[in-house]
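In this section we walk through a basic example: taking a raw amino acid sequence and producing a predicted 3D structure, encoded as discrete structure tokens. The instruction is simple. Fold the sequence below.
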Amino acid sequence: MSHTTLAEFPCTAGRGAEFLGALLPALADTRAFEGCEGIETYIDSDNPDQFSNVRRRAHRILHHYRDPTPVGRPEE
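The resulting token sequence is shown next.
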């Protein structure tokens, strides 16, 4: 049974292109993971600094990774 995950990436105004430049090469690694059935990236047509990823996997995974300082976000 396939599992679908939606991830949303809101970027700081004007930094979307920078984020996309970092994201797209990293998706090659994601596509290579065992069980990856596909990953698609969408750009909000009303806000070029808002992205969404839809990932389909053959099985559910139970680990998550989050970078504490994402590209385009000021450090808190």
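Looking at the output, two observations stand out. The CA atoms of residues 19 and 60 lie 27 Å apart. Helices lie at 16-32. In the next section we compare this with other chains.
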